[in-house]
Amino acid sequence: MSPQPQTIHIVGAGLAGSECTYQLALKEFQVKLYEMRPQQMTPAHKTGHSAELVCSNSFGSETDYSAPGQLKWEAQKLGSLILKCAKKAQVPAGMALGVDRELFAPEVHKALQDHPNIEFQNQVISDLESLPRPAVIATGPLTPKELSQSLQRHFDSEFLYFFDAIAPIVDTESINFDIAWKANRFEEGEGDYINCPLSKDQYYTFIEAVKGARKIEEKSFEEIPYFEGCMPIEAIIERGDETLRFGPFSPKGLPDPKTGRRPYAVLQLRQDNLQGTAYNLVGCQTKMAYGDQSKIFRRIPGLEQADFLKLGSIHRNLYVHSPKTLSPFLSSRRDPNLFFAGQITGVEGYFESTCMGLLVAKFLGQKLKGQSPSLPPRGSALGSLLNAITEEKDHFQPTNINFSLFPSVEGKEFRGRRGKESRRKYQLDLAQKSLLSWQESGTQ
Fold first, then answer.
1. d(CA 268, CA 283)
2. I want to staple 71 with a disulfide (CB 3.0 to 4.6 A). Which of 135, 265, 381, 416 is the partner?
3. End-to-end CA distance of the chain, in Å?
4. What percent of the chain has pLDDT over 90?
């Protein structure tokens, strides 16, 4: 009789926990997946579905010349469940991978429920000591207070915190298309984004209105930083009145078809569901009070009569100081059978979190099979992101995948190549070759 497969305990059915659970189940391990929702909800979640998206509905760029695109290419090679489900629920979003959040999460949930090696446990885990090993903590930035305290005791150090914000969503039929139009940046014809133009006066009237709005923010957390990739519109404006216009409200590549001229600023809206009946306001994550949000965003031309299906909000998030507390394989330095995956490790972004779950499944699976865990190549997107959150450093803050994380290619091997585009293409070529070599070695 063959020995009973070892059971792995995973806490948190978000993106990372769902990915990690599925990958380990495919390796024929028995997995218990603990999820407190819907028994106990968080400030941001609305359902009990696995992998529910609580902020944007975008997984970032899919382009083959970008760092996020390379990360998706590598995850696809490793058989990512989240990527497969995202493709099934995909909505038009230009060069980004946008999904219908109401289709995406149930698709992931069903895949987990249907797998015979996965057992759901609808309960709250509040103490690390009560959790059998091996275990994976994938509770994300909204980790419950009791478990956070248990983790603090385990590491004997303070956690790091940040604020995360959510953008409003509007009913498509309430958008005034006599003013707004559909287009992607630098492309002709109808595109995937809805664009609302602002004149100089309209832009500054909007800026002043945001400044004067009532804000909702817990006083005890005022010194907590924001994620750069999900920064509230108020925090962007605090850096200068023009900052928003050179960021998410940039008019570049978006001439108004009614005038043929480029507006002073442009608000873009991205499709939020498959039917195209809901769009979210890109770059408009906010901590404004609910009563002020609708009034202020209706100042934007095209949104005068907007019907807001969901208003923006802000909540506190949490992550661990991974360089000090975790090994290069994302296990606790104090307990090699306790792993961490997802945003709690200090990665920023949906897909970055997903990939940490994918990697932990690889590392833990290898360990339980008596193999030496194998790190992804340093030159790959996976290896670069992992290195960024585990390499010793004095100052640590969350990061998403970007070209600055990849190894430098200056030197002999880069001789004869010039310019940023050439350098990045060379970096991506090396990343793909190294990832494929890693796969072929049989140690992945």
1. 8
2. 381
3. 29
4. 66
Single-letter amino acid, residue 417: R
In this prediction the pTM is 0.76
| Angle formed at CA 127 by CA 121 and CA 131, multiple of 5 degrees | 50
User: Where do runs of H (alpha helix) occur along 313-416?
Assistant: 322-325, 350-368, 381-390
H runs (alpha helix) in 224-283:
233-238
Contact 324, 157 (CB under 8 A): yes
Question: Pick the residue with more confidence: 273 or 49?
Answer: 49
Instruction: List the structure tokens of 16.
Output: 């990372």
CB 400 within 8 A of CB 71: no
Q: How does 401-438 read in b/e, with b if 16+ C-beta sit within 10 Å?
A: beeebbbebeeeeeeeeeeeeebbeebbebbbebbeeb
| pLDDT tens digits for range 175-205 | 999 999 999 998 865 689 999 999 999 999 9
Tally Cβ neighbours within 10 Å of residue 310: 14
For residue 56, what pLDDT is reported? 84
Question: What pLDDT shows up at residue 106?
Answer: 97
Residue keyed to tokens 């293409």:
425
Is the pLDDT reported for residue 63 higher than 70?
Answer: yes
